Amino acid sequence: MRRLAVCFGFGLILGAALPRTGQAVAVLALPRTESHAQYAPPAPRAPQVLTESSLSRLHAEGRSVLWVYFTDKREGDAASFARSLQGVRARVTEEARARRARETGGRFVPDYYDLPVAPDYVEAVARTGAAVRHVSRWLNAMTVEADESEARLIASLPFVRVVTPARRSRRIAPVPEGSVPPSQGGQESPTRGEGLEVPRFRTELLGSAPTLPKPVAYGASTTPLTGINAIAAHDSGWSAASIIVAMFDSGFDKTHNATSPLLRIAEHDFIFNDGETANQPGDVAGQWDHGTGTWSVLGGYYQSNMIGPAFNARFLLAKTEDVRTETPVEEDNWVAAVEWADSIGAEVISSSLAYLDFDGTANDYTYANLDGHTTVVTLGAIMAARRGIVVANAMGNTGPGLGSLWAPADADSILSCGAVDSGDFLASFSARGPTFDGRTKPEVVAQGVATPWAVAGSPTLVAPASGTSLSTPLIGGAAALVREAHPEWTVAQVRQALMSTADKAATPDNNYGSGRIDVVKAIYGSPLGGIVAPKPFALLIPINNGVVSKPPDVTFKWRRALDPQGSAVSYKLQLRCTSPDSCVFEGTTTDTLLVFTSYLGPSKIYEWTVTATDPESHQRISKDRFRFTTSSTTDVGVPTPPPVPPRVALLQNRPNPLRAFTQIDFSLTGPAGSVPVALRIFDASGRFVRTLVDTYEPVPATCTIRWDGLDGNGRRAGSGIYYYQLAVGEKTYSKRLVLLR
């Protein structure tokens, strides 16, 4: 096979395989290391721009999906390249800039990959008659649907470097009990929209809401969450609050009881190129089944039925997988989605999709392509990780053979996820490593056998399902919890923490990887050590979605953030106007109250957050992003007065003394509303042991909380006298209990 040295136009030499007739073309490989911000001249065109593999696909299909790679981004020279980079910041959210800065250990620096593809290149390709599908700024490429005559016109354009076929995939469907799905052929290509515009994705906030309280009962999720120690992490106050998690899948039922309480901040359908990820005209009835299920496993919140590990995350929903029998699932949807999620600020991506292509043609990816730097989706996953996103992707359900994994599970910097049953025995269907270049896969495993998920279209139905599609969102949710506890950690550190504390970390192999994860150990006990950031905390007033009016001062209040090391914490309040998006005020204090006395415009929506910082500069943003509207009759505002404090009845725990567990009951009565409630355990000397509840509770309410005798790190507390303290609003109530071992 001949090889040609080519370049994306920024001085980075990449390998592009030019095939003999009948062979698959290798996808361009991202460099392992280099600075991506420097200008370099355009890359040369390939000797055969329209590859033999593209022609083979076109001859077989008549009209095919093709990748069109460009020589440059029209940056001209070094000076114009630098000017182009200056405009990048406005196209990247504050969350994305902060994540990128953390990953590089400094400030956010835009690079070549942030620059858009030259619009006149895209339009020139579209004028050939080809239908535009997606445009990738990372790959400096686009996908089109074209016939042979259109493809030849595209290849004749002087700025087109090479044209290759887009590969198909097979989705990771749930595994029927007692069976392993066979390898099957790909599916036929659909006709996409004829619009010539580059897609414009919707990225505005869909809502701002208080966080969900810690679940009282986990229902069918108890076993899989206990298996990864996620319930103990919830008991310690972690729930992925403020972490942005992107779900890539087939579509999402947002009305199911398990998903309707979750906070969505953006969504996009990459199949029909619109902003609706639920089923819509043109979809088959089961389109949203898989995505609804995986989303519920990661973040579901359906008390007494099912709970996901990251139920307080802020979600991005990407509909990337077309399940219609006549439609291939294409790799370009995944790449478009990962660039979209990156620009909004995703911290974690959970993807239960995989790509290898089984259409039986010479254009297939092969095992030799699973080397961590060849397939398009693997390149996308690696780029996401380098830009600070933890990617959890399913290994596939094609085990038990060696090397049975699918892309992008071969990427070297992600969490490739295998499946075990509730007894920690490896599922027969779970795909195995190694990668073609000999690296161990998977990284870790979680329960993927008889794992409960929400059934789309049936709002109350939860049923068991099996597959690495189920273990992946458990691991993705766990990664969100670790990232919440250690917001300063890089992708590599989150990955290392989960792998080094898994149950087979001492003897990793190509079946289990490092084994089943333990979230609590990853947070508190990994070899990385490190100080855990201040605990998540809630905002109080102005209440969310309330209205503020006269007199002229606005008082902001929030709950205190507990520092696990016992240090003093300072706070920074940020107040923003949402339209136009602008920062109105920033103020710092060591108190949990700050008064704003300046001008606020009438009939405007404002959003406010608070960031807690410990003496070592570890930061924690508030669990909530509250919004309020100013009255139309005043130019300044004050908060709605707090509700009348409820009457509190805190009962004696039972059994007392406790040996295995004890139950603590309390009730709140009074005018309807909600109040901040925290229940904590202290030892006889007053040292903090564990937070059992830290949330809002409705009034009236009767609550039952269990304590299993473990401290906040998941360790057994010793025998002795303890106190449980209930804080409701500004008042506290306490009683004594006895623990006997």
Describe this entry's structure for a reader.
The protein is α+β, with helices and mostly antiparallel strands. It is 17% helix and 28% strand. The protein has a 7-stranded parallel beta sheet, with helices on both faces. Strands 21, 23, 24, 26, 27 and 28 form a 6-stranded mixed beta sheet that branches. Strands 29, 30, 31, 32 and 33 form a 5-stranded antiparallel beta sheet that branches. The longest helix has 18 residues, at 468-485. The radius of gyration is 27 Å and the shape is globular. The chain starts with a strand and ends with a strand. The model is unreliable at 1-36, 178-207 and 634-642 (pLDDT under 50).
The oligomerization state is single chain
Principal-axes geometry comes out as globular
Contiguous helical run count: 13
Strand order of the largest sheet: 9-12-8-14-15-16-17
How many strand elements?
33
Alpha carbon gap, first and last residue: 69 Å
Main sheet specs: 7 strands, parallel
> Helical content, roughly?
10-25%
Mean pLDDT: 83
Describe the SSE topology.
Blueprint: E1 2-7, E2 13-18, H1 52-61, E3 63-70, H2 78-86, H3 94-104, H4 119-126, E4 131-136, E5 141-147, H5 148-156, E6 160-165, E7 168-169, H6 222-227, H7 230-235, E8 244-249, E9 263-269, H8 289-299, E10 301-302, E11 306-307, E12 314-319, E13 329-330, H9 331-344, E14 348-351, H10 376-386, E15 390-394, E16 415-420, E17 444-447, E18 451-454, E19 462-465, H11 468-485, H12 491-500, H13 519-524, E20 539-541, E21 546-548, E22 554-558, E23 570-578, E24 581-589, E25 593-596, E26 605-613, E27 619-621, E28 626-630, E29 647-650, E30 662-683, E31 688-707, E32 720-728, E33 731-739
Parallel strand pairs: 8-12, 8-14, 9-12, 14-15, 15-16, 16-17, 21-28
Antiparallel strand pairs: 1-2, 3-5, 3-6, 4-5, 7-13, 10-11, 18-19, 20-22, 22-25, 23-24, 23-26, 26-27, 26-28, 29-30, 30-31, 30-32, 32-33
Helix pairs in contact: 8-11, 9-10
